[in-house]
Design brief:
With 465 residues, this protein is of the alpha/beta class. It has 14 helices and 22 strands. Helix content is 33%, strand content 22%. The strands form 4 sheets. Strands 6-5-4-3-2-1-22 form a 7-stranded mixed sheet. Bound molecules: zinc ion (ZN).
């Protein structure tokens, strides 16, 4: 069989790998490329290396858009096979892909306005709500640890990846030319000892492992640091009567922050202040979290025994209405506003930043990964001035940055996970989902840890195994 690396090869978005066996063709993930608008636009539209009609099935690791976001386009272009994923991933995809279709439509309207003025032909959105609905119909929810047949002779099962709700590491047993190949795919790998989710679970030994490497050469602070830092931020906001503005991804980070705040207030580690989650997508994603307690770790299960709802408390308000969101401008601090997007590139967070970033009483709390060139990254770099909606704003608010809430394993945690594998059996580790410098550092560490061979595939490169 062959493995061809198509997306997330030498980069962190567009996760997409193609497995060709004698019996058929299976995709691992089908994510959107994100980044420079023009480049991403082209990459997402064209299926350069395969015809969607020729694909027999998809295995989906989790619901993040860079892993699942191009599935509706695959379906629009003729794919009609099953998409295997966990039950929670399926439910989260309903929410995430509908939101993505909405963003595609808005983006295309924006681009077309310019093109119309220039007399150029107009683009169609990448996909529509109807394509999303069709995609959800093809999704087959599977329990963790239960083996399923993907195509004849190709079996797989999911293990908890501990990255976001429903995320999975996939273990595959593939019969090809009279032998059986065991293959693992990490998807995105989470961290041990994080709240809400269970720790990443080892899978059985494999011949080949496709491993993410986002933080292959970096190290995070311990999760335990987060509580003290958030308590400190709350105390400062109270002293200054200021607002805390926290950009956060709707799926994962928002729920973790809410849970962390709930535990802080419950034990009296900080005075209770009003907390607002201002994002319709976060509201919907949180509903899906509440329905999937089977994915929770023991700590949050114990919390549920003491409280009805760990993702909500009496000083927390979810806002979905635009008018209510605008009304937050007139409200006085101390208060904490959590809003999307996490990299502050789009969404309501932009309004909150525009309204609050120039006031020195306020605090901008950055807890997530921000890619180069994003507004979030510029805030993390503590630039004196940033552009929001095309206008310059002075960054007078205090900027607090911490990475202890990261949902990705760092270099040590990745090594800890991969060390579970039998070295004699493992023929090759393929590194995906990382920038080249992180991949090279991680490859060196794996070789120092006595793994036989590590490869860093380029886009379109394939390997016969
Ligand atoms: Zn992810």
């Amino acid at each position: 069989m062959d493995i061809q690396f198509i997306g997330a090869a030498g980069t962190v978005t567009g996760s997409n790998h193609l497995l060709r066996t004698e019996k058929g063709r299976v995709l691992l993930d089908c994510g959107l490329f994100q980044g420079k608008r023009k480049e991403a636009f082209e990459l997402n539209r064209s299926f350069e290396f395969y015809n969607p009609k020729s694909i027999d099935a998809v295995i989906l690791s989790h619901a993040h858009i860079d892993h699942a976001g191009n599935l509706p386009n695959l379906v629009k272009r003729g794919f009609s096979g099953p998409i295997f994923c966990t039950h929670a991933t399926k439910d989260l995809c309903e929410v995430m892909l509908a939101d993505s279709a909405h963003i595609q439509q808005k983006d295309t309207e924006f681009v077309n306005k310019k093109r119309a003025k220039q007399g150029k032909n107009l683009f169609e959105p990448l996909y529509s709500q109807a394509d999303v609905e069709q995609t959800i119909k093809l999704m087959v929810g599977v329990d963790y640890h239960s083996e399923f047949e993907v195509i004849p002779g190709f079996k797989a099962s999911f293990y908890d990846a501990g990255h976001i709700l429903g995320s999975a590491v996939t273990y595959m047993k593939i019969k090809d030319k009279n032998r059986t190949i065991e293959l693992g795919f990490s998807g995105d790998l989470g961290r041990p000892n994080m709240p809400i989710l269970r720790d990443p679970e080892p899978i059985p030994d494999v011949d080949y492992f496709i491993c993410e490497s986002t933080y292959g050469g970096r190290f995070h602070e311990d999760y335990d640091m987060s509580e003290a830092k958030v308590v400190d931020v709350i105390n400062k906001a109270i002293a200054r009567q200021g607002k805390i503005i926290a950009p956060a991804f709707s799926l994962g980070r928002t729920q973790e922050l809410v849970y962390l705040l709930h535990t802080i207030f419950e034990k009296g580690a900080a005075p209770v202040i009003p907390v607002v989650v201002d994002s319709p997508l976060s509201f919907n994603a949180t509903q899906v979290f509440r329905e999937h307690t089977e994915c929770f770790d023991d700590e949050i299960k114990a919390f549920i025994l003491r409280h009805e709802d760990p993702l909500g408390f009496n000083k927390l308000r979810f806002i979905t209405d635009v008018q209510e969101s605008k009304a937050l401008n007139d409200q006085k601090g101390p208060m904490l506003i959590i809003s999307a997007s996490g990299m502050a590139e789009s969404g309501r967070i932009l309004h909150h930043l525009a309204n609050n970033i120039q006031n020195p009483a306020n605090i901008i709390m950055m807890t997530g990964y921000c890619a180069e060139n994003t507004l979030g990254k510029k805030i993390i770099e503590r630039r004196k001035e940033v552009n929001i909606f095309g206008e310059p704003y002075q960054v007078n608010a205090e900027v607090v940055v911490f990475n202890s809430l990261s949902a990705h394993a760092d270099s040590d945690e990745l090594i800890f996970y991969v060390n579970n594998f039998e070295r004699e059996k493992m023929k090759d580790i393929f590194l995906v989902h990382g920038e080249p410098d992180q991949q090279e550092k991680f490859a060196k560490r794996l070789l120092l840890n006595r793994f036989n061979s590590v490869k860093i595939p380029k886009r379109g490169e394939y390997f016969s195994v």
